[in-house]
Amino acid sequence: MGAIACVLGGALLATTHGESSKSSDEPHKFDTPIWNPKARWQIERFAGCDARGHLDGPRLEMESFSPGVGSRAYQAMDGGGRYGFGCYDPGTGRGHLVAGSARGYLDGPFSRARFGGWDYVVRGRSATSPEGRYYFFTDGYNGHVLRRLDYEKQEVQTLLADTRSLKGMVPDSKGRLWLLKSDGELICLMPDGKAEKGTRLSLEEKIGAWGVSLAIDEKNARIYATTYGAAKWHVWFWDLKDGSFHGVLPIAAKDAPQRARNEAGPFEGVNLYNEGSVSFGPDDPDYRFLYVGRIDTWTFFRLDLKERHVWVLSPDGKNKGWEGQVVRFIDKGVPSGQLPCFGGGRWEEGGSFLGLSHSPFAGWRFKRIE
Amino acid sequence: MTLGPGLAGMAAGEPSNEAFLPLHEERDAYKPTAVFGKKVYFIAWQSGRTAPGDLRKNVSFIGDIVGCRVDKSGKPLDAEPFVICGAKDLQEFPRAAFGGRNFLIVWQDLRNGKDWDVYAARVTPEGKVLDPDGILVSGGAHNQAKPRVTWDGKSFLIVWQDFRSGKWYEVHGARVSPEGGLLDAEGVKLASADFHHCYAPTVASAGDGRSFVLWVGSGWSGDGGRIPMATGLFVEDGKAKGDGAYINKSNKEHGPNEYAQPIAMASGKDSYLAAWKTDSPHGRGGAPDESNAAIFDFKGERKANLRLAGDKAGKVIVDTDVAWDGSSFVVVWHEFVRETKIAVPSDVVFAARVAPGGKLVTGAMRLSGELKSPASQACVASDGAGVSLFAYEKHPEKVDVPIKVGFRMLNAADSSTPD
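^ inputs. structure came back:
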């Protein structure tokens, strides 16, 4: 089940920094940044009612896979047999399938467009543009073409033919989409749809069939990454100036000392599950804090890249259900309970975020309260 | 008899040529439902979906419920569809039954802008809408959604899933008289639980005053062992009779469950056939596919399970519908099919006939759909004398052509039916 959350998470995490940048002009509710150690969040149900099936409409009474609801674009995983894409309208508090009609292949209006469907290998191969207009994904059942959903015109367009070798994608604030191929070639897809070749990246970690999650640091011209099955590094970055590889969060050698699984502390000795996602968050113009999800671990990490320290999200009190639970990032110890956000988070104004996980078919919002 | 485009050239046991219903305002046609009565087939569908505009600003809808009639020869009787409900916002998932005099169409309706309500409208066999825009069957706070309807011989029984508790879906029902009167205002609670959903109900009746209602349970995964996967009970005079004629608490029965729904059901002469979707994504592994249909006797006991698409494991089917053709059940569904191992999958509509005891009379008959023009979301109605009409969404080859309602007919009167 983790893979499903990853599909959604991959799409949303990639957009977080750009969107928070867009909203930085808005009045902030809190004087302190979200990475302040005193920041607290309270969990509330955002969407879904724990029932499998397909029912659109008011968010808290929706059925089926809804962790992605809250974004304008989300994959309607069931979709009543249509394999389509949904759209959440904050004005009405409703989510609806808006794109997709039958299984197959057809570009054009949302109402008639056809999609092939998705599977585990889609992870890391979808993204939302910073202004929320476009949603990109590779259609794994349709020859791995790169398709773009335009939420302004309600149209689907195929941008690139066979992208089988595509391993990950990340948008930047200028509307460009960076695409990483399995041989390390970086392609920059411009807002007008034209593709330009970029720097070839040094592949010191092999990128597996499930792709790679990417996060872009536009100030320092870096792309951070994590992948499943890495040998030496949970997280690394490439310098876009020369394509060089730089390890960030090491995987401890077999004989080396390790902390407990998910325990906060220095980068060295960290013990994480070897699959997940990376993203940047708001309030961070220097790109100091990298947020890391690890599939099926039921928590969420924040890497302080300057101090080289792992923080982990933990319930403040005893974990008796998620509703109303208060959580914070801790810099030592293990989290005191499970949280529905291991797929990452989608940041909102004011520092709240939507947690991405696969269970129990509901979406959870982490509302900032301190 | 003058044959229309539907039955023209049709051999006994073979489906007719494909024909199409007229479009409503050139809008895409979604999710048709079909019923037979007084010598005509009546097909209703959702016309249109999302209104044009930037979805980042707001999401607005133009989904209406429209209908069209087809005679027994397969000839469309209406030059253009008539509007059953053109209320604002969105109307979805129409279902229909025939009550001796008129058809009753039910649907879920978002005209209040907040949540789904259940509406219903009568339509005469002559095509007159007696309740324009429908009558409110159940509204109020929270969702009332996914209605199904049957005729029990005295009144229509509508069942739906209802979130009025604010926590769990419950199954509610209400009767509508042949005159269009709502006999159970706001509905009667038929099923509920304090720790899980009771939802996705379906209903069928032999017209003997009783209706068999079947639904599934779902809830927090940690309570999985305590939640009945599927439950059935009988309703008479608008009230539930007994605590449950059928309760499935075990995976061993391979019946419908939270992953294997929605369910469609019809009544035969001495049994019901329920068929369900098995293409519910639910994480690692395939969808439940040990069976996709079951026979229940008139006591509500499950008598047989079967695979409509044959014995091939891993076969998943989507959005079933069932009718009784007088000697067999007729079932329709869609699957995604790859024409070659490396080809793109696309939706194809199939049908099969099932004997009252649960044996397949025919193998899966491919009715419509190919890669360049898929078919999906099928429904079926029968005249009870061997002639059935299958309707479905027919998706266009070219993007500037709307999705239409396609249909084919099957005259099974001359084909043999085993017990």
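Chain B has a mean pLDDT of 90. Chain B is about 0% helix and 45% strand.
thumbs up if we can close this ticket
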